[in-house]
Amino acid sequence: EAAPLAAAYADYFPIGAAVEPDQTEGATAELLKRHVNWLVAENAMKPDAIAPAEGTFTWERADRIVAFAKANGMGLRFHTLVWHSQTPEWFFRDEAGQAMADETDAAGREANKKLLLKRLDSYITAVVSRYKDDISSWDVVNEVIEPNDPDGMRASDWYKITGTGFIETAFRSARKAGGPGLKLYINDYGTESPEKRDRLYELVKDMLAKGVPIDGVGHQTHINLEYPSVESIIESMEKFHALGLDNQITELDMSLYVYNDLSDVGPVVPEDILQRQAARYGELFAALRDRKELLSGVMFWGIADDHTWLSTFPVERTEAPMLFDRQHQPKPAFQTVTDF
Ligand code: G3I
Question: Is the ipTM beyond the 0.90 threshold?
């Protein structure tokens, strides 16, 4: 049997996995118990999962993940208080039921902004109050940067209605409800690309200057066999570290396909691809060990190849982005990551 993954990294950082509530039982649960010491909910703690209506909370699925982590001595991340996706409509409708983003009247827009920020504060206060003693690292906002949108800020309902007000309110509310013990992150993908990284850096600097309590940057790190370079991943973390911030790798996986390639390797992953993946995973983890002062954790977005969002994105096809295969056996990449 393979030596435990997280144990191999005990001197470096926690190693985690994203899970669905069902995976806290059965074969996946056993794999998790052996190999990781950190968990995050893949979907169960997103706004649409927790708050189907204003003031109505459905905690059961999220609680199952928390209970499993606690029972097995694992830490937790929270994903995610604020996002443009998987967020119920009720946040963005005014008292008359109209979409706030459509309001053109200045006074109406001001009232909408106030109402939305008040809802956000109530929501965050409720969620943080419930989990503050169990969860230490929190994605407060997710994916707010979009270099192709005006100002480089994603033109989400949040941004259209409040400007960057939602970011300020989200961090301040989380800090207020959770206290200084919580580590609060701004999370995004593509943070290694200079364009995205530099816009994110600018935003974070601006927020810090206003006293907004941001503790770190979450780097999703959905990478593939070729892109981005390991150097660019490290460089981005260096940049935020120099600002006094922590970094976490929050959603690591490695697709077999480069961007825009819609091909399929077929039902069985060819050995040479598994070897390329192993070499690249090995290179990445060697660099992370080497620069462990830059980060405080590595979270995989899944644990084994039998469950990954990539198997349907961007098309349905064979994917194998994790360190364990569909039978939960360690892959060549598991060896290169643990053999040091
Ligand atoms: O819960 C419903 C279920 O009731 C329904 O029967 C089923 C039919 O399609 O859909 C289920 O919802 C799906 C949900 O995952 C739970 O399985 C959604 O369709 C599906 O879109 C959703 O995908 C998730 C995706 O976020 C949504 O944007 C993926 O599982 C999840 O891995 C992915 O995670 C994101 C991170 O939050 C942010 N960073 C990128 C990452 C990958 O996209």
Answer: yes
